[in-house]
Structures are given as structure tokens and as C-alpha cells.
Amino acid sequence: MFFFFVGGVEQQVSKVLKAGAGRCINCGSVADLVEYEKVLKMFFVPVWRWPGKEPAMYCNDCSLMFPQSFSLPPPPRSDSPPSLPDVLRCHSCARVVEPEFSFCPFCGSAL
């Protein structure tokens, strides 16, 4: 007798706690602070749900869920004047970079 099991556990967002709380570590777009739940699925049907341990960050663009401690700082607000010229900041992680660098030493993106 052969038994074939199709299923697994996945994480799903249950509630958005703070929109735009940080940035995604994968694509750099805005990420939300969320509460999530783990869902056991058998044959693609949800069978059991239980809450996650602590809030996490969720990117709506690439659907990545990652711990809050790994998130990048949120992007600067467009209505506030920048404190440094844009040339001295990385476009991906917004950290201060020396003007002679071609790549950001923090995130590795091209400047």
C-alpha cells in the first residue's frame, strides 16, 4: 500500500500592525509590520491554524516574510528635506556612502 501526502505548513498574514514600518531585505521596497499565523494544509486545504510567536515584517512586492530584527530602516519621507545630498546615500538602503564608491558596502547594490 502506498500513501501519497500533499501538504505542508505555510505562513499567512493575519493582521497589519503598522504599514510601511521598514524595508524588505530582499527587494528593498516598503514592508509592513504584521501578525501572522501558521497554517497546516493537506491537499491544499487549510486544516489547522495557530498564531506566530512574534510580529514579523512582510513585503507586499516579493511576498517575503522575515523577522523584524532583520528589517532595513524605512525609506525617508518625501515631504521632509534630505539631510545629506542624494549622492552620499545608497538608493537601496539609504545609508551614507562615500562618493567614490561604485557599490554600497552595506547592501551591495550599485550606486
TrEMBL record:
InterPro entries: Double_zinc_ribbon (IPR053281), Zinc_ribbon_15 (IPR031493). It holds the Pfam family Zn_ribbon_15. Coiled coil: none annotated. Residues 23-108 form the Zinc-ribbon domain. PANTHER family: DOUBLE ZINC RIBBON PROTEIN MJ0416, OS05G0435400 PROTEIN. This is Zinc-ribbon 15 domain-containing protein. It comes from Nelumbo nucifera.
